[in-house]
Design brief:
Elements lengths: L1 E7 L2 H12 L8 E2 L6 E9 L5 H9 L6 E13 L2 E8 L3 H13 L10 E8 L14 E4 L2 E9 L2 E10 L1
Antiparallel strand pairs: 1-3, 1-8, 2-6, 4-5, 4-7, 5-6, 8-9
Amino acid sequence: MRIFYAVNFKEEIKELIYQEILKVNDNNLASFTRKENIHLTIYFAGEIDKMKLDYYIEVLSNIKFNKFEIEVEGFDFFEKKDGKIWFLKVKENLILGDIYKQITKKLSLSQTNYIPHITLARRLKNNQFILKSNLSSLKIEVDSISLMESRFVNNKIAYIEIASKH
């Protein structure tokens, strides 16, 4: 099973972000994120043995944080072999960075340069449609962290919450 730690958003936040996607949504350009899948990944663990799932849930339950706020600061791209990833940048946030560090430490992993972001599209063929975002000062309250599973349901990727910590 494929799992990751994430911040899930309330429906009204997903809708605001999805409206930005709809401005350019052309399936010939990229694979755009569906509204129900909009989230902020904290740490992608990837494929794990289902027998180890309880350990990942335990890691989640031991994360220490208080409610905090993240702020969006515009669009950007990552270069990947199969095309670009288009995302909303999230301003550097000490609490979010600390949560990332707690997870990687508990999983005994080396820490990489964590770039908090909200993926809008994958396998982007060009970036000619860079937009000025109406979301550049969007502030989002975070009161929970989730452990998610990524799987295919009816030939579409779906993210299913396994557990959450408030």
